[in-house]
């Protein structure tokens, strides 16, 4: 077993032989190109002057007053394109360009990774195909149009639940068909090695900035909270703090109508070890090992697997993972909007919703950082039409 491909017992490369060529090529390029001073300088310049980094660590005064604790928001929603996704998409697209690839492909759920990939492709002069489930296209029409406006070809997937899992499967198949000329930009810390580590490394800028900003404030974080679907925004902020034993890390999954119902995407809450999309991880599956259908108001969190590093961190109990329901999420979105004038993405609102459970249980005043992974502009139709108890996805 190649230990560097694993986090404990999770990870690996469970792919057809035809894909191994591309994974080997990618790993070699990542190690030889992405670590060079020239690549890092070019990426840093783009992140600063194109994306707008560093994103602020904002003291949410009114939320803090409401909950009785010091609440800080890591404002990934202020990045160009409106989410953390651009950090990774831009870095991978730049690597693709350095490798001589002419075309990138991507999968997307909420559409933010698709928009980020299409944006990076436009900036760097690359062709771009984005695979998106038909259901997700319907509930994220604005993002689908943004991708097209940026020059990307949006491929609608009509299989299965027509959401993120099916889009990912279709993107992998398309990659296999054009493997020598195409670069697959995976949007989360999932998939076969080296993707989970590469995506984590590209997103770790969130955690590095957060540590530096906390130092500037002269404080330390008692808790860091982030939403988890595949888990790139969460691992991006958690990775910097894994060795800080006095900082509790909390990942929030999509509870849908409740993790005790069939209608959720709470993989680490209810999943079992399995194989999905080229990796061994925790998977929502039935008694026969078939991947279960998932449901969430969030197009970005309705995934039946999770990144293998999250599965490992759950296994060793370094990170605690909980599920938040659609209704709790919507209430948190509305509260944050009214108190802070910040409209968070539905995904990020799952993390914000956990404040309602955590804060009343704390005996002394704590400092809590919530990663606001994206902005909620894309979700207005969903929130306007929200009905408690409705099955989404």
Question: What does this protein structure show overall?
Answer:
The protein is of the alpha/beta class. The protein has 2 domains: 3-47 and 84-199, Rossmann fold, CATH 3.40.50.1100; 52-82 and 204-384, 3-Layer(aba) Sandwich (Rossmann fold). The protein has 17 helices and 14 strands. It has helices spanning 17-34, 37-51, 61-67, 85-98, 112-124, 134-139, 141-149, 164-177, 195-203, 205-217, 232-238, 267-270, 308-315, 326-340, 346-353, 355-358, 380-384, and strands at residues 6-7, 10-11, 57-59, 70-75, 103-108, 127-133, 153-157, 182-185, 223-227, 248-256, 272-276, 279-283, 319-325, 367-372. Helix 10 packs across helix 11.
Structural class: alpha/beta
Q: Overall 3D geometry?
A: globular
Strand order of the largest sheet: 3-4-14-9-10-13
Largest sheet: 6 strands, mixed
Mean pLDDT value: 96
Beta-strand content estimate: 15-25%
Under CATH, the topology of the largest domain is which?
A: Rossmann fold
CATH C-level label of the largest domain: Alpha Beta
List keywords for this structure.
single chain, 393 residues, alpha/beta, Rossmann fold, 6-stranded mixed β-sheet, 4-stranded parallel β-sheet, 14 strands, 18% strand, globular
Topology, element by element:
Layout: E1 6-7, E2 10-11, H1 17-34, H2 37-51, E3 57-59, H3 61-67, E4 70-75, H4 85-98, E5 103-108, H5 112-124, E6 127-133, H6 134-139, H7 141-149, E7 153-157, H8 164-177, E8 182-185, H9 195-203, H10 205-217, E9 223-227, H11 232-238, E10 248-256, H12 267-270, E11 272-276, E12 279-283, H13 308-315, E13 319-325, H14 326-340, H15 346-353, H16 355-358, E14 367-372, H17 380-384
Parallel strand pairs: 4-14, 5-6, 5-8, 6-7, 9-10, 9-14, 10-13
Antiparallel strand pairs: 1-2, 3-4, 11-12
Helix pairs in contact: 2-4, 4-5, 4-9, 5-7, 9-11, 10-11, 14-15
């Amino acid at each position: 077993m190649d230990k560097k491909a694993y986090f404990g017992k999770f990870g690996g490369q469970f792919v057809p032989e035809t894909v191994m060529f591309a994974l080997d090529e990618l790993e070699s390029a990542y190690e030889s190109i992405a670590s060079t001073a020239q690549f890092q300088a070019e990426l840093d310049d783009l992140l600063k002057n194109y994306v707008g980094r560093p994103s602020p660590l904002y003291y949410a005064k009114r939320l803090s007053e409401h909950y009785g604790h010091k609440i800080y928001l890591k404002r990934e929603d202020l990045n160009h394109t409106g989410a953390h996704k651009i950090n990774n998409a831009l870095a991978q697209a730049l690597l693709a360009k350095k490798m001589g690839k002419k075309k990138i492909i991507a999968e997307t759920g909420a559409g933010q990774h698709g928009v980020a990939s299409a944006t990076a492709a436009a900036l760097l002069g690359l062709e771009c195909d984005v695979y998106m489930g038909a259901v997700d296209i319907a509930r994220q029409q604005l993002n689908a149009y943004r991708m097209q406006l940026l020059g990307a070809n949006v491929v609608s997937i009509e299989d299965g639940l027509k959401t993120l899992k099916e889009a990912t499967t279709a993107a992998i198949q398309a990659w296999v068909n054009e493997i020598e000329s195409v670069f697959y930009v995976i949007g989360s810390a999932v998939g076969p090695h080296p993707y989970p580590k590469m995506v984590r490394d590209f997103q770790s800028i969130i955690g590095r900035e957060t540590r530096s900003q906390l130092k500037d404030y002269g404080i330390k974080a008692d808790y860091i909270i982030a939403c988890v679907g595949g888990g790139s925004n969460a691992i991006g902020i958690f990775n910097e703090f894994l060795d800080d034993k006095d900082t509790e890390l909390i990942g929030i999954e999509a509870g849908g109508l409740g993790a005790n119902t069939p209608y959720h995407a709470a993989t680490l809450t209810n999943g079992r070890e399995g194989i999905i999309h080229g990796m061994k991880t925790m998977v929502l599956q039935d008694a026969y090992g078939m991947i279960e259908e998932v449901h969430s108001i969030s197009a970005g969190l309705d995934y039946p697997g999770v990144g293998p590093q999250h599965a490992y961190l759950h296994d060793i109990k370094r990170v605690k993972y909980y599920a938040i329901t659609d209704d709790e999420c919507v209430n948190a979105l509305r509260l944050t909007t009214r108190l802070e004038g910040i409209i968070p993405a539905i995904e990020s609102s799952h993390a914000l919703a956990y404040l309602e459970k955590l804060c009343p249980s704390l005996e002394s005043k704590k400092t809590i950082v919530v990663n606001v992974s994206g902005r909620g502009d894309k979700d207005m139709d969903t929130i306007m039409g929200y009905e408690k108890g409705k099955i989404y996805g």
